[in-house]
Specification:
6-stranded parallel beta sheet, 460 residues, 3-stranded antiparallel beta sheet, Rossmann fold, 434 Repressor (Amino-terminal Domain), single chain, 9 strands, alpha/beta
Amino acid sequence: MSVPFGRKLKTFRQRIEFSDDEGNLGLETFAKEIAALMGTENYPSKSTVHNWEKGSAEIAASERKLLLNIIRVLKDYKRILNAEEANDVLFSGGYAALGSDEINSIFGTVSLRLNTQSDLREFQVFLVLPLPIGIIERKDEVVELKARLTTISSSIYAQVITAIRGWPGAGKTTIASILAHDPEILHAFPNGVLWISLDKEPDIFDKLMTWARALGLRNESDASKNIDGLQAQINALLHDKRVLLIIDDVWHVKDAKYFRVGGKGCATLVTTRSTEIAEALVPTPSNAYKLGGFTEKEALDLLEYLAPGLTNSYHEECLELIESLEYLPLAVQVAGRLLNREMQYVWGINDLLAELKEGTKLLAEHSEVADATSPTIAALLRKSTDCLDEQTRRYFRTLGTFAHKPAVFDLEDIEEYWGVSDPRPFVKKLVNQGLLEPIQGEYFQIHALLVAHARSLYEA
């Protein structure tokens, strides 16, 4: 359950401008109405609904009946007026949009402002990465990029294309994920969002098929059995739609061009670490947005979130630390989790600063991570894995060969790969060290920079 979903649910529950009754739809009444539809006496309870709205309790995507009954109650009390508003609630939690049968069941008739059944199917496209937990909202960057993506192209043929460029660990994928879940973006692109992550050597046909399946295409015709034919089919399907296309982690211009589909109503967002690639994919250099590190306040806020009390007790030291890490979001996150766990035992922030300086000297000559970012950040990642016990460190090393972009997996994936009956204790240690990141539901992700670090340990 994401906090945005809880906020959205509460906002609609308390909406009264179109309702016949006075006051809000209370928690107790809301819970009882849902329970009646579910055929249960005590689920959900008033406290359960309260926890949903706080973001401290989850509804699994598999609990579709529960989600639909929540929408039904909101609709019956005139808190939700149409399927567009229902999808606004669902999208905020990363859930699939209403299907045509679900819309007819809840609203009686199709209430989307779309013309055909094909359009209706397209509205259901929502293929994105889940939002990470505990992210620091970078409001200025999000506002700027939203403005760019929702600006109508001045050409009668061209669509809006924006590229985010920045260092590994700068937060490009996270910013793109925030945009993909943003209600204003979803309103601007009512036919949905399509996401693909490419990495160094992508299987272009397989990646295109991911989009084709999301759009309801089947690999049946001769035209869809090769890259060009498949691209043409996707392009034809999207030519009159309004979809946001996100092409994440582009390493080669030629790869990204296969995903430049759709018409003027679509917009494309590219993320890459390369200035050259970014500028090659956009109409003008001004369409390439340089994403830097955190502001000082954002970095301190994240440190305080991960290690409560740290910034007040060691303010000057924290400033020195985040400056040495060049305000890189991934590095600040790893440092914060590392300090939260270790400072209460043997060493604290001054020890970490000293070890980073020494480690920087040792790694300055050569390191895959140091080459991608800086020796200081490479030293931080080395420190984070040095603090692990040998068994957990061995499991982390294997992620260098197991994980790929997007490196998102659940406990079952890890259990099967590691060959352990209960991987949770080891996963918890990696999360505490900032080496794995929990996201919505029972999923985790590992950043590409940390995959490189794991690989370097595996090959050592």
